Sequence to fold (128 residues):
Amino acid sequence: MADDGKGLGDLILTYNAAAGEALGKREGHTPKIEVPAKIKSGEAVEIKVAVGPHPNTVEHSIRWIEVYFYEEGRAFNPQMLSRVEFSPMLAEPEVKIKLNLKKSGVIHAMEYCNMHGLWSNKKEIVVE
Fold:
């Protein structure tokens, strides 16, 4: 097998980095992250990550969503918050997580579509 020189990070698509055929896939594949821009330290907050509108068939569906937190000032990042796998036709690709953060950082979400690969998005969150 020839080495194409690409690392895994090179294979993850984002809304702004999509090109070619992937341009038409951005709306249905980029994870949408709902989280307040600012929260109080130690106060529980719910975040939601969803993908879609997207087909939900055995042949074409979102198979999993992972959510990470890149904490400001932490030596080893990111921290995995959640990984949820979905059954085609039965489960919709949506995750809700209740967090209790003490530091600011960035929420990262990544999803896998069995036809169109890995897609990610991020959203900054400020802890006061």
